[in-house]
Amino acid sequence: MKIRKNIPLIDQHDKFGFWGEKFGGSFIPETLKKPVEDLTNLFQKLRKDKNFIKERDYYFKNWVGAPTPFIKLENLTKHLGGAQIWAKVVSEANGGAHKIYNATVHCLIAKKAGKKYVVGDTGAGYAGKMLSMAAKKFGLKCKIFMGAKDIKRQKPNCDAMKKNGAEIVPVYTGSQTLIDAVSECMRYWVSNCDTTHMCVGSTVGPNIFVKICGWSTSQISRELAIQIKKEFGTIPKKLKLFNCVGGGSSSFGFWNEFMHYNKKQVEFIGVEAGGPKNSKRHAAPLTENSKIGVLHGAMQYVVQDNEGQIEETESISAGLDYSGVSPLHCFLKDTKRARYTSATDEEALSAYELVSSLESISPSLEPSHAFAEAIKIAPQYNKNTIFCVNSCGDSYKDKDIIKSRLGKYIR
Amino acid sequence: MNKNISLAFDRCKKENRPALLSYTVAGDNNKTKSIEILKSISKYIDICEIGFAHNTPIADGGQIQTSTHRALKNGTKIKDVFQIVKKFKKFKNSKPVILMGYYNIICQYGENKFINSCKNVGVDGLIVVDLPYPENKYFAKKCKKRKISFIQLLAPTTSNSRMKKIIRDSHNMIYYISMLSTTGGKLKVSSKEILKNYYKIKNINKSKNLVIGFGITLETISALKKADGLVVGSALCKEISKSLRNRQNPVTNVSKMVEKLKNKIL
């Protein structure tokens, strides 16, 4: 299995949609074959269309707020006394997280497809919030599927969705988290694919949704490459890019532009959710060597039992609490382009606390997982090694959880 | 090709009626009861579809999800599904059994091993909901080799050119999904519209047995009786749930319902 040069990673799949011949594909009911094919053709056309790109860039710049800041975390660097630590503050994007890129692109596509309704799934509530924002902006009616457990733990984002006029559909099946929300959203699309566009909230799902999302979030690394060159004059000899991995949309977007650098120069470090200390229900299929199986229309490493029943996971971070992971990350793992590890709930909380108390940014619990790994290994390096962490969400949405766990909330 | 399935359709054609196909989930509401249900409805039905449960079904509506959940909760494993088929076949060997489910269960069990186990217990056909054409070609061939029918699905969204290809590569039975819906949805298109599509497909190749499923209940079944076969699934799962809620025996209630369904298509 090898990554080819000069071809975007999202296009390195075979005719059935498999990356590395075994990850991805489109395991979908017959009813969805046609809508998926239509969407595939439309997206292929649009991404070559100069006017569409212009439109995308216009909204990214003037509405999303590109580029998001790239800043040095001076205090944290000094505190740890090792590698230089920088952050790409993607949480400064309109709405407060990277999910805005995928949501914007999906709504633009829905408009081109002549669809009036858009539906989406959400875990942490960011994908739903952003989709509701974009739907409002582009005049589409919006429905968001969300696990009942997540609705309870991510109230601020739910309030935002409602304010944007979206309908939140609570999902009571299974573990009542993201996995069930994605299933229910797909079921809804099966029944309404003639009038409705579906947005999958991460780089997961049938092949085309992985591609659209990866294409959209790649904006993050396009900006970052320019910012790094401006700051250092070139891409540094030792650069490490840290990102949390749930479904994998922010990490893929954070890395894509650097894909073809040698990994000794630009290393990708993906941090999955290890769950509570001593928990066995890690949301970390890559780190824990889960078996390959089908989830939500794609072949991937997925947390499952011997029979192929998908197992529930457990994480303090709703956005990472997912049994599967993007086929793109499975491909990056097997080709050894990226390295994957996990951080526990406790490590993420400490990382949140340390960053928020020392710096002007306050990462949400998802990127706090990435910070945890960066903080852990930074002392082993010197200032010639540049660490950059994607701070892809703001802690405000986790205020209640943090307060109950740490007894205080710092921002 | 699988003989049991062809024979079942031939018999119905002679009687000038559609084949009645039931769908129940193996292990719902428990292992013993699910065999009893199959045994008691077997005198009214022509083919039984038996679902093997998956906990992340992306094409099933509420009724079947509930049945699936019950089956998994009481510990039904894939080996139990095969045992249920085996026991049922011992009771009524000529009644065709079609297993229906999602690909990940087959994938984890191993494709070849799965087909072997099917063969050993007497499974006649397979429906894999999330393994569409042409991705399923290779697996379908393996099934055919062992005389198990791989049943292709067609939907209202399937284009004409695609339809032709699928029918060309199909075995002796094809399943037409009546409408854009998960299983158990309310029938939202007229029976006239469904039959129009049905004949369109039928005219491509008359020799294929074409069944209609999704949204078929006591209320809707008679209007569609011109078809080669009709599948009732969610209505039966719903009846099991209702029986349990009312502390009644699901075996007798489901059996009564299937008898009524049968009377509607005679």
CATH topology of chain B: TIM Barrel
Shape of chain B: globular
Q: What is the total number of structural domains of chain A?
A: 2
Q: Describe the biggest sheet of chain B?
A: 9 strands, parallel
Give the C-alpha Rg of chain B. Answer: 17 Å
How are the SSEs ordered, and which strands pair?
The complex is a heterodimer of chains A (about 400) and B (about 270).
Chain A: E1 18-19, E2 23-24, H1 30-46, H2 50-64, E3 70-72, H3 74-80, E4 84-88, H4 99-112, E5 117-122, H5 126-137, E6 141-147, H6 148-153, H7 155-163, E7 167-171, H8 178-192, E8 196-199, H9 207-217, H10 219-232, E9 239-244, H11 249-255, E10 266-275, E11 292-295, E12 298-301, H12 327-334, E13 338-344, H13 345-358, H14 365-377, E14 386-390, H15 399-406
Parallel strand pairs in A: 4-14, 5-6, 5-8, 6-7, 9-10, 9-14, 10-13
Antiparallel strand pairs in A: 1-2, 3-4, 11-12
Chain B: H1 3-14, E1 19-25, H2 31-41, E2 47-51, H3 62-73, H4 78-91, E3 97-101, H5 103-109, H6 111-121, E4 125-128, H7 137-145, E5 149-150, E6 152-154, H8 160-169, E7 173-177, H9 191-204, E8 209-213, E9 229-232, H10 234-245, H11 250-265
Parallel strand pairs in B: 1-2, 1-9, 2-3, 3-4, 4-5, 6-7, 7-8, 8-9
Descriptive overview:
The complex is a heterodimer of chains A (411) and B (266). Helices cover 41% and strands 17% of the residues of chain A. By secondary structure, chain A is of the alpha/beta class. Chain A has two domains: 28-60 and 98-214, Rossmann fold; 66-96 and 218-406, Rossmann fold (3-Layer(aba) Sandwich). By secondary structure, chain B is α/β, with parallel strands linked by helices. Chain B has one domain: TIM Barrel. Chain B has eleven helices and nine strands. In chain B, helix 2 links the parallel strand 1 and strand 2. The mean pLDDT of chain B is 97. Classes of the chains: A alpha/beta (411), B alpha/beta (266). The A-B interface holds A 16, 25-35, 173-174, 179, 183, 186-187, 190-194, 291, 293-297, 304, 306-310 and B 54-61, 65, 69, 72, 77-78, 102-109, 129-133, 135, 153-159, 162, 177, 180-182, 185.
